Amino acid sequence: MQSALFMINTALAGRLGAEALAAAGISNFLMFFTFSLFFGMSIGALALVARSYGARDLTAAHAAGRQGMLTAVAASFISVFVLVFLADPILRLVGGSDDLVAMAAPYLAISAISAPLQTIVVMVGAVQRGVGDTRTPMLGSVLMAAVDLAIGLLLVNGGYGLLGIAVAMGVARLATAVFMLATIYRSPHRAGAIGSYRPDWIMQRRLMKVSGPAVGEMFISVGGIMAFSIIGLQLGTVSFAAQNVVGPIISLAYMPSLGLGIAASTAVGQSLGARDPELAHRYGREAAIGATLVSTAVGVFMFLFPRALLSTFTTDPAVLDAAELPVRTVALFMPLVGIATTMLGALRGAGDTRAMLLISLLALWIIRVPLALGLGIVLGFGLTGMWIGAGVNYVTIAIASLVRFASGRWKTIRL
Within its chain, how far is the Cα of 406 from the centroid? Predict the structure, then answer.
């Protein structure tokens, strides 16, 4: 359903033309970068909640959720300030043209206003997943996608363009935040999100120990992907628009693997809390096998039918032509996406966030970004060269995370 949400907004922007698709793409990457702080906090919160729940220490599990929420929501208001008041200069800083900035800045500012609501959704979801409830966050994603689609279609067809998409996302986030709070309030674990928000410095230190490297990893990951986008922006509006439709197609393989990775995070964390590291190892292994099968199947479909997939997001012939070969190229690397994503999820569930930080640094800033620049710009292979660099990035993450998981060092980490 998170794939569906990503695809809906891309398809809506794609119907407005290549310029609108490019403006929405660079704005979304900037939002993801500033959101890295509370996404990283959710990783630490999930690991601590799962570990404490596995050890049957509900007090600590609930305290970890509330303290994570306190820090993450506060951080989200910083994101609002930065993106609302500095949208124009930030877009120019990353290389946006005058026309692109004029279209993207209002979209970015309006989208950013609802960041605290997105934070609530993410953090409540972390608590629910940590105690083993992955169904409720899934239903929240269904609700968000449905509201976003209905209102987005209404506003875009009503002539509101990109601003209509931004407003639709804000309303969808509001509806989902209310839903998530209502569901956890009615659950036995409402203390994990609703209760006293007085700072608990002991729990905050525990959270920072796990979340600090996770936040760093998120900044490195999203920053690397944003740098990848900025490189693509240098190839022109059409190529950049094409780049932004390749991403949603890749998410068809990435998001199911991410779901299995989240399940692995919960299962590994709970098993370690129950002092059963061998069971934790089995969960991680089985999640990787399942994700590899799924991502391989998606990769085959991507390779065989790239044009059909791309046509879902845009009808612009130039964009379709520019994106077809990159989709086929990156499809060859899809089996590695399943391994990379689930292994990272298992290691995060164990609280091994420092290793994740180093792996992300290696894969993105030493492999992906330099290769994208070298192959795509310097050697002139364009968008296809850039996505070859992305594919090598998936290979690097898969190998490094497998080696770390096989070492077993994550089994002895104390949170």
Answer: 25
Task: For residue 186, give the amino acid letter.
Answer: R
Pair 165, 155: CB distance under 8 Å: yes
pLDDT in tens, 382-405: 899 999 999 999 999 999 999 999
Instruction: Write the CB contacts of 410 (distance below 8 Å, at least 6 apart in sequence).
Output: 346, 347, 350, 351, 352, 355, 404
Nearest-angstrom CA–CA distance, 385 and 65: 43
Using one digit for the tens of pLDDT, what is the confidence trace for 173-182? 999 999 999 9
Token digits of residue 175? 């509806």
Quote the CA–CA distance of 268 and 224 in Å, as a whole number: 28
Per DSSP, the residues of 50-96 read HHHHHTT-HHHHHHHHHHHHHHHHHHHHHHHHHHHHSHHHHHHHTT-
Q: What is the Cα–Cα distance from 241 to 323, expressed in whole angstroms?
A: 9
pLDDT confidence of residue 39 = 82
**Amino acid symbol at 227:** A
Distance CA 285, CA 49 (A): 22
The pLDDT of residue 186 is above 80: yes
The predicted model gives 103-107 an average pLDDT of 88
Tell me the two tokens of residue 91. Answer: 């877009």
Q: Give the angle subtended at the CA of 381 by the CAs of 377 and 386, to the nearest 5°.
A: 70
Residue type, 147: V
Interior angle at CA 309, CA 375 and CA 24, nearest 5: 65
Contact call for residues 139 and 184 (beta carbons, < 8 A): no
Question: Which residues contact residue 341 at a Cβ distance below 8 angstroms, ignoring those fewer than 6 apart?
Answer: 254, 257, 258, 260, 261, 291
- Please give the residue range of the domain that contains residue 84: 2-412
Distance CA 387, CA 35 (A): 24
Q: Give the tens place of pLDDT for each residue, 348-364.
A: 889 898 888 899 889 98
∠347-348-353 over CA atoms, to 5°?
95
Q: What is the pTM of this model?
A: 0.76
116-134 tens-digit pLDDT: 999 999 999 999 999 989 8
The total domain count for the chain is 1
Average pLDDT (169-196) is 93
CA dist., res. 415 & res. 410, Å (int):
11
Q: Who has greater pLDDT, 283 or 255?
A: 283
